[in-house]
Write a structure and sequence with these properties.
Chains A, C: Pfam families: SMC_ScpB. Chains A, C: Keywords: Cell cycle, Cell division, Chromosome partition, Cytoplasm. Chains A, C: This is Segregation and condensation protein B. The complex is a heterotrimer, with 2 copies of chain A (about 200 residues) and 1 copy of chain B (about 280 residues). With about 200 residues, chain A is of the alpha+beta class. Chain A has 2 domains: about 5-80, Winged helix-like DNA-binding domain superfamily/Winged helix DNA-binding domain (Arc Repressor Mutant, subunit A), CATH 1.10.10; about 90-180, Winged helix-like DNA-binding domain superfamily/Winged helix DNA-binding domain (Arc Repressor Mutant, subunit A, Orthogonal Bundle), CATH 1.10.10.10. Chain A has 12 helices and 5 strands. In chain A, α1 (about 5-15) crosses α3 (about 40-50). The termini of chain A are far apart. Mean pLDDT of chain A is about 80; it is low at about 175-205. Chain B is mainly α and about 280 residues long. Chain B is built from 10 helices and 5 strands. Chain B has helices spanning about 1-10, 35-45, 50-60, 70-85, 90-105, 125-145, 175-190, 200-215, 230-245, 270-279; strands at about 15-20, 20-25, 220, 250-255, 265. In chain B, the strands form 2 sheets. A 3-stranded antiparallel sheet of chain B has the order 3-5-4. A two-stranded antiparallel ribbon of chain B has the order 1-2. In chain B, a hairpin with a 2-residue loop joins β1 (about 15-20) and β2. In chain B, α1 (about 1-10) crosses α4 and α8 (about 200-215) packs across α9 (about 230-245). Chain B is rod-shaped and about 120 Å long. Chain B starts with a helix and ends with a helix. Classes of the chains: A alpha+beta (about 200), B mainly alpha (about 280). At the A-B interface, α1, β2, α4, α6 and α7 of A face α7 and α8 of B.
């Protein structure tokens, strides 16, 4: 078998690298005695750039070297590959959010005390990045814990004019109201929270 | 004497093991092999079936017609050797030794004339197991030979130019939020020490708003917190929110002298010295 | 700006994905009202396969869909991009994996019976962590042992489209039939093993 052409190797390496490759990195793919000139490698890259003129990918020159990337023209379609991956929020996140909404301003420690488990940094990060929650101050106690509150965006997202539009706690605590009213959910509530299923009045079945 | 017979059968060109590159052609009856070499040898086998298969193949014998006595003796010699060297021999090797001995003794029985008795060759079960194991030993080799990721195949992944990736966050229904809250409350009630009080949400909201208003400022005049346009209820809520925040160490109320204007500020903006005092 | 051709989008998506894409995943890149036919997408993939005939990359079909990968011819060069050597797997692991692949669903006990030795917990852990194998149920016998099966990741890793692509298992020759035939022609057993003949009478009890 003859050795594949320099261009094929450069192409495969650039596409497989998953990031920019410098000229030196490309040269390092060859054993010393077979190593091409720098000019040959740049030549191969230029040829590939021409080849890609009517393709879905292109070779961009960045500070770190050469990088194969999706052509901007098709990027909006390709970007949807990752759209699908946004997973549903965990129950822990929703519980944390609801506690911030109802008990703001509240510290992480207070949330943990009510939930009985630690609140992961990721949850706080996600809620902050989504701009539903932000730090409005610090409680002036040792450790100066951050106080979290909900934002305007939070209200907008859920179509609320103010927090007063949220159902009062008493209603939420009463399973009957919750089940009969706002929460005519597809899944029966007890399936999601088997631990508290017993609280549901038998009459509801 | 059984050992002698068996070792005669061992004088074949094929080495029974290759230890660090050097073939071992004869069984070491005088224990001239260093123990760690035998450990290597033992490691080379995946178990008693693998060792048996090796012994059979080494002599170009057909699995279907194993000279059971010979193979048994060879097998026993290995096992004995391992035991003498106090190598950590897996129990499976001993179980197999017992099985071989049993087959061997049954083979020595005169064959009964009536064919239906006992159902055939005592080696049958062993042969079945050897064949079955051999198939999967081969299958494992075939699998290993398949071109695979990391070794033979390298998937590609080109980047996306910046600005196109927008991770759409998941949708949340208000009902999901309420169900979650109800879950926490129900759990919190199980621990009687925790109590989530029934509390006016407008008060909570106002607390956040007051904090927001005071953020980044030093002293703010207390009265500036109130918006008379909100009417009586609004003023009361703001007043309660301020008290609540003061109580929970978020706000600080300062009055320099009696009847002077009251000022309010977030305690977090205090000087370092204050922090120490609080701590 | 006119919309880019289907082929460009498919190419860019496949090259950007970093793993196999199914037809459905490709179709999902298009808004419903612009969604192409399945046949059009497969057509585009076939065209690309032809285009790549003299390139450093190729499109393979695996269980998870279509995957763009480095052409084997240039793989040895490209492999030098990564410092770590490809992992090697022990015979014990490969034998266990083969048994799960060919005999699924199978319990650990059944694997041990065929291999004649215990299956180490480490092997099961490695196979599970690599997501090549997972528990698909439990056998309804005492102890309810877990039943293992291979995953799509396993197929993708070994470049298979389905379990049918596995190399065929060797045939089993029926020992009973063959033995009976052979034994009829053979000398009496005790003649072959004179050295241990004395054990005969005792063993009969």
């Amino acid at each position: 078998m003859t050795s594949p052409s320099l261009k094929l190797i450069v192409e495969a390496a650039l596409i497989a690298a998953g990031g920019p490759l410098t000229l030196d990195q490309i040269l390092a793919l060859f054993p010393e005695d077979e190593r091409p000139d720098r000019a040959e490698v740049t030549g191969a890259v230029r040829e590939l750039q021409l080849d890609y003129a009517d393709r879905g990918i292109e070779i961009a020159e960045v500070a770190g070297g050469f990088r194969v990337q999706v052509r901007s023209m098709v990027a909006p379609w390709v970007a949807r590959l990752w759209d699908e991956k946004a997973p549903r929020y965990s129950r822990a996140l929703l519980e944390t959010l609801s506690l911030i909404a109802y008990r703001q301003p509240i510290t992480r420690g207070e949330i943990e005390e009510i939930r009985g488990v630690a609140v992961s940094t990721n949850i706080v990060k996600t809620l902050t990045e989504r701009e539903w929650v932000r730090v409005v101050g610090h409680r002036d106690v040792p450790g100066r814990p951050a106080l979290y509150a909900t934002t305007r965006k939070f209200l907008d997202y859920f179509g609320l004019r103010s927090l007063n539009d949220l159902p009062p706690l008493a209603e939420i605590r009463d399973p009957e109201v919750l089940l009969d009213d706002q929460l005519a959910l597809e899944t029966p509530v007890e399936d999601r929270f088997p631990a508290i299923g017993h609280q549901r009045p038998a009459a509801n079945d | 004497m059984a050992l002698e017979t068996a070792s005669a059968g061992l004088q074949q060109e094929m080495p029974f093991a290759v230890v660090q590159g050097a073939p071992l052609l004869t069984l070491p009856q005088d224990l001239y092999i260093p123990p760690d070499a035998l450990e290597v040898f033992l490691d080379a086998f995946e178990g008693p079936l693998d060792l048996l298969l090796y012994l059979i193949k080494r002599q170009n014998l057909d699995i279907l017609d194993i000279p059971i006595a010979e193979i048994t003796d060879q097998y026993m010699e290995y096992v004995e050797l391992m035991r003498e060297l106090r190598l950590d021999l897996a129990a499976e090797y001993l179980v197999m030794a017992a099985m071989l001995a049993e087959i061997k003794s049954r083979m020595l029985l005169p064959r009964v004339e009536s064919e239906d008795d006992e159902g055939g060759d005592p080696r049958a079960e062993l042969i079945r197991r050897l064949q079955e194991y051999e198939r999967f030993k081969q299958a494992a080799e075939d699998l290993d030979a398949l071109p695979r990721l990391e070794r033979d195949h390298f998937p590609v992944h080109a980047g996306i130019p910046p600005g196109f990736l927008q991770r759409t966050p998941p949708d949340v229904d208000l009902r999901e939020l309420l169900v979650a809250l109800r879950g926490v409350l129900a759990r919190a009630q199980l621990f009687t020490s925790h109590r989530v009080e029934k509390e006016s949400l407008s008060l909570r909201e106002r607390m956040s708003q007051v904090m927001e208003r005071l953020r980044g400022r030093s002293f703010t005049e207390f009265t500036a917190l109130f918006d008379v346009a909100e009417g009586r209820a609004g003023v009361v809520v703001t007043f309660l929110a301020t008290l609540e925040l003061t109580k929970s160490s978020v706000l600080e109320l300062v009055q320099n002298e009696p009847f002077a204007p009251i000022h309010v500020r977030l305690r977090e903006s205090n000087q370092e010295s204050d922090d120490i005092a609080v701590a």
